[in-house]
Amino acid sequence: MKLGYPRALTYYDYYPFWAGFLQELDIELVSTPPTNQTMMEIGLKKAPADTCLPVKILVGHLNSLSNVDAVFLPRLVSMEKNTYLCPKMLGIPESLLGTIPAGLEVVTVDINRRAGVHQAHKSLIQWGKGLGKNKHQVLRAYAEGERWLKTYQDMRKQGWGFEESMECFENLAESGKLENLGLTPRQVQTVVQESDEYRPTIALLGHSYLTYESYANLNLLSKIARKANLRVVENVPLEITQEEQKHLRKSIFWSHARKIYGAGESYLEDPKVDGIIYLSCFGCGTDSLTNDLLARRSRAEQKPYLVLTLDEHTGEAGLVTRLEAFLDMLERRVGHEGHLPAHGEFVDCHSSPV
Ligand code: SF4
Questions:
Q1: pLDDT tens-digit readout, 27-37
Q2: Domain-located, residue 195
Q3: Rounded CA gap, 296 and 292, in Å?
């Protein structure tokens, strides 16, 4: 059996898990190529108008699948205890059935780990039965998927880039065992400062499926990395992102928002980070909350904070102008103003976020 997996949304966090899980069950998993203009245009045309950009991109990928027996669209309800994924993800695949090419079969399974792992085991065992796999085989495959995912997460924490890590796992999914993956630790700081010239350190926050979606974000990562040292959400350990919610009255229960907020808190308190950029997408409900919470916190911590909102009409010139202005501001702040903006704390700290 050969399943097609769209390179969108859940691919960015969970591809290694599904690749390891399905390989153990002798099911081939092939992913779609990186997003291109045709995919984007099809996504915009076919996806429901009120969905966010990442879901539109997913629709574009669904329509680019060929030579597969079915498309694999798992419904991820919850991947960690007491958290949920966003409602738009919970509605997949049903909300997108009308956009899937006629004749393409959909394979789906629910994963709900809100109350622990047993519920996920139960649904996967049931799903495996339909494919002729017994309980023992499915549980062994689940453990293998977890092992692949953990290795991927460790690689990211050690400074491996997203593209290079995913390439390793895509090669591994074709043929190979995890043990054959020759891992060497990377420097988290991918661009080394070679001169005395000032290079700020920027933390980029946002959903993985937008941060690493270089077609949609107009290569933002490399644009930043050319001028600054870059940190991302995945460089912060997951355990820390969960702890870093002490300024909130209650924990955030959307897993992506929780991760982004936690990483944001950790970077706000890190003196080596000069500024924070929040990459948000138009139409995202959870971003509107996380972004505002972090904007308030960065105001209190006097840490420069820039929001870049992407939608399908985002122009490169506008993005570059905002980025350059932000970097210039950081440079002036360090070089001439003793780490305070021209108006000191008074204008900024007491201004209303509304
Ligand atoms: S969290 Fe936001 S960007 Fe992600 S799927 Fe939900 S609405 Fe879209």
A1: 999 999 999 99
A2: no
A3: 6
